[in-house]
Design brief:
Layout lengths: L9 E3 L2 E6 L3 H4 L8 E5 L4 E8 L11 E5 L2 H23 L1
Antiparallel strand pairs: 1-2, 1-3, 3-4, 4-5
Length: about 90
């Protein structure tokens, strides 16, 4: 997982018009599973973040949240969770 950095402002790399106080403010406005490139204080640090709605087998109503250092790692984490959920769904359909 990405190292937590002490920063105060975040930007969506695709839309730098507005800064945000928390990366979640960017991610939550995307479709579930869409990976956002988050820039921190003039690109001092970059993380790749995404979320999925809570899984049916989750003990909480928290979203599945991914924070990674590379796009590929974020993509792999989302794909892995989707595959896990699909396997659970398939087994419950039997």
């Amino acid at each position: 997982m990405a190292k937590k950095q002490e920063v105060q402002c975040y930007w969506d790399a695709d839309d730098r018009e507005y800064g945000h106080s928390d990366p979640w403010e960017i991610v939550e406005h995307k479709e579930p599973g869409v990976i956002s490139t988050i820039e921190h204080v003039a690109v001092v640090g970059v993380t790749f973040e995404a979320y999925l709605h809570p899984a049916e087998d989750s003990d909480t109503d928290d979203e599945f949240h991914v924070v990674e250092d590379t796009y590929e790692a974020a993509e792999a984490a989302i794909a892995k969770e989707r595959m896990r959920r699909d396997a659970i769904q398939e087994s419950s359909d039997d």
